[in-house]
Design goal:
By secondary structure, the protein is α/β, with parallel strands linked by helices. About 45% of the residues lie in helices and about 15% in strands.
């Protein structure tokens, strides 16, 4: 069994989805709070504030968690057991730019961080930095597990699998965090009325299989005591319009109740991350000849993300200046997917989580090295994908094309090769023509010059 004093280092603590929850988990978990939390952020202000926050909460809760921090990852990485990558280079600015240039050529991205030109160019920006981190990890903590939390998750996970096979790694997305994910669908299926009614017996009798490329994942089986309950889940999603959830503040939420049901009718399985999946298919790009009852995709709301980012730091400031009592921290936040998995790997227990990793036969009709989001057993020995049903045809074909585009994007990022980059764009499902792809490529390379390796411009 691992020592209960693990060192967990987070590179990019300022994430709006992750940093505050990771601090919560590191302090709450008896398997983690006797260890060390390493905090790294290249923004000195962010690094300082999160460091102070972690120390104050740990002191208030009376745990012995040690905090190390720096804007220089090399000063913190040494002896880390787990390294979580959660950074992005001026992501709002560049995603907004990716979306604007793509729109000129008829490509509508409601997220722009995983597929289309946005996903490909984010790979070009972030993967070289990931590999710089890997070089430091090889030197300072070569036995550490590396957990990638940076979109596009699948592309970067593929990159680590291909270009850092000596490093233990996997990738995560927060959308299918167990066991909450299964409890939520038990409610949708009408098995229970409330998540609090979920029991080990219901867990055993409710067979739910989900798999696919990250953000393009599909529920391919949902049975309760032998009854197919996927139609009930699909109907629940079609009619479950929570005020504001389809609304003004998030392009990823618009019309999801209609789109998810439409995809279910077409493919016979249900998309589990509709807000992203609708961007992976060309059906709502506004190119159809005949009218549709579902509007074309809205463009990612950069201003809404800016507001959320400001709100994160306001929340942190409020704890630090006493506006919000530090004693309320542990009742304000909750569990995080990455640190949940770290806890399972440290504790000696075997638990189930959805993880992005190589298939290794889990989906029998896809390649062993297909990089998929799969339910895995997790324990001190590592991660082990669970075998499930075959991926339905249609969805499987679309998934294979996405994997090819991700593979090519990573290869282009490593080699800084424009021919490979063009091939990645033309393999992507959203590109209309070779000429458009060339124009998008040239415009974005020039516009994002400061964020890309110099080799692109030699």
């Amino acid at each position: 069994m691992k020592s209960l004093s693990p060192k967990v280092t987070i590179i990019g603590i300022g994430s709006i989805f992750f940093g505050r929850q990771a601090i919560w988990q590191m302090i709450k978990s008896p398997y983690l709070n006797g260890g060390t939390l390493g905090i790294v952020d290249t923004n000195p202000t962010v690094c300082d504030k999160f460091t102070r926050l972690a120390k104050e909460v740990a002191a208030h809760e009376g745990v012995s968690l040690k905090i190390e921090s720096s804007t220089n990852r090399r000063e913190v990485l040494k002896d880390s057991d787990y390294v979580i990558l959660s950074f992005a280079n001026d992501t709002i600015r560049y995603r907004e730019l990716d979306c604007a240039v793509s729109l000129k050529y008829g490509i509508r991205m409601c997220s722009g961080d995983t597929v289309g030109p946005g996903g490909i160019f984010r790979t070009l920006r972030e993967f070289p930095v990931i590999m710089q981190c890997i070089d430091d990890i090889r030197e300072l903590c070569p036995d550490a597990w590396v957990i990638n939390y940076i979109n596009p998750t699948a592309a970067h996970g593929i990159g680590l699998m291909r270009y850092a096979p000596d490093i233990k790694s996997f990738a995560l997305c927060d959308g299918q965090h167990m066991p909450m994910y299964k409890k939520k669908h038990a409610v949708m299926a009408g098995i229970i009325k409330d998540e609090s009614e979920f029991t080990p017996e219901i867990d055993r009798d409710f067979v739910m299989e989900t798999a696919g490329v990250n953000h393009f994942t599909w529920m391919i089986k949902a049975e309760y005591k032998g009854e197919n309950v996927m139609p009930k889940i699909a109907e629940f999603k079609r009619t479950d319009i929570i005020p504001g959830s389809d609304g003004e503040k998030d392009a990823k939420a618009l019309n999801n109740h209609l789109i998810g049901y439409e995809l279910y009718k077409v493919f016979g399985c249900f998309p589990t991350t509709i807000g992203h999946t609708k961007e992976y298919v060309p059906f709502w790009q506004g190119r159809g000849i005949l009218p549709s009852n579902i509007p074309e995709l809205a463009i990612w709301y950069a201003d809404a993300r800016r507001e959320r980012t400001v709100k994160v730091m306001e929340d942190v400031d409020n704890f630090l200046n006493g506006t919000t009592p530090i004693g309320e921290y542990m009742t304000t936040y909750g569990r995080d997917h990455a640190t949940d998995i770290v806890e399972a790997m440290v504790s000696g227990e075997t638990k189930e989580y959805y993880i992005n990793t190589a298939n290794h036969g889990a989906v029998p009709n896809m390649n062993d090295d297909a990089f998929l989001e799969l339910k895995c057993f997790v324990n001190t020995k590592g991660i082990f994908p669970q075998k499930i049903s075959e991926m339905p045809r249609g969805v499987r074909g679309l998934s294979e094309a996405l994997l090819d585009s991700h593979e090519l994007a990573v290869k282009a990022a490593v080699e800084c090769d424009r021919d490979i980059l063009l091939r990645a764009l033309l393999t992507d499902p959203l590109i209309n023509s070779i000429e458009d792809a060339q124009a998008i490529m040239n415009e974005l390379l020039e516009a994002e010059k400061d964020a890309l390796p110099k080799k692109w411009f030699k």
